Amino acid sequence: MDNKTLLIIIIISIWIISLLIAGILALIFKEKYKKLKKFNGEIIAKLENLEKNFQLKEVKIEFELSKNEKCFFYQRNINAFQIKIKSKNIKRKFKNFKSKLNIYVTNKRILFETFEEYLQFPISKINSYYNSPIYLNKNWINGLTLFFQENKIVIENDNSFNLFLTLKSLKQERKYEC
């Protein structure tokens, strides 16, 4: 065999191998995408159903809030993590900001209670928020993503529908107040 024939065989072999790899990856993605599509359909149906009956209700909590501030959402032992942050001090605080934290949503702020620290963000500083499926251990779970100016917090929680609807109601109230 001459070099030209050998080169053609190598190129065709590489092309066939890459085609097989692409096909296998496409099959894997197809299965994952089917589950995501089904999960998204269920989430949208649940959210639409809950939105019809949702009313903002005040929740009693164990500590006192400032005057004219009311708590509308409280959840214990949730999993959350932060994606990007600029301040190095806060970055250090968020090392344990993984699980077993409490979240409070009042009409003025959203508060995350970690082991011994409270981290708070004003409701007005939330740029956007949405329900986001999270792929964990080959399963899709419901979550909520909050975008602040330089922060992105992802909350893994079965009760994220209520948190989403609470934030939506509070943001709409603030829009009409201005």
User: CATH H-level name of the largest domain... which superfamily?
Assistant: Pleckstrin-homology domain (PH domain)/Phosphotyrosine-binding domain (PTB)
CATH class of the largest domain: Mainly Beta
* Terminus-to-terminus distance: 81 Å
Q: Indicate how many domains the architecture comprises.
A: 2
Percent helix, as a range, is: 40-55%
Order of helices and strands: HEHEEEEEEEEH
Number of extended strands: 9
Query: Which architecture name of the largest domain does CATH use?
Result: Roll
Strand content: 25-35%
Gross morphology: elongated
Describe the secondary structure blueprint for this structure.
Elements: H1 3-53, E1 71-82, H2 88-93, E2 101-106, E3 109-113, E4 118-122, E5 128-131, E6 134-136, E7 139-141, E8 143-147, E9 152-156, H3 160-177
Antiparallel strand pairs: 1-2, 1-9, 2-3, 3-4, 5-8, 6-7, 8-9
Observed structural traits:
alpha+beta, Transmembrane protein, single chain, membrane, 178 residues, transmembrane, 42% helix, elongated, 27% strand, seven-stranded antiparallel beta sheet, two-stranded antiparallel sheet, transmembrane helix, PH-domain like, 9 strands, 2 domains
Please explain how this structure is put together.
By secondary structure, the chain is an alpha+beta fold. It folds into two domains: 53 residues; 107 residues, Pleckstrin-homology domain (PH domain)/Phosphotyrosine-binding domain (PTB) (PH-domain like, Roll). It is 42% helix and 27% strand. It has three helices and nine strands; from the N terminus they run H-E-H-E-E-E-E-E-E-E-E-H. The strands form two sheets. The chain has a seven-stranded antiparallel beta sheet. The protein has a two-stranded antiparallel sheet with strand order 6-7. Strand 8 and strand 9 form a beta hairpin. It is elongated. The termini are far apart. About 4% of the residues have low confidence.
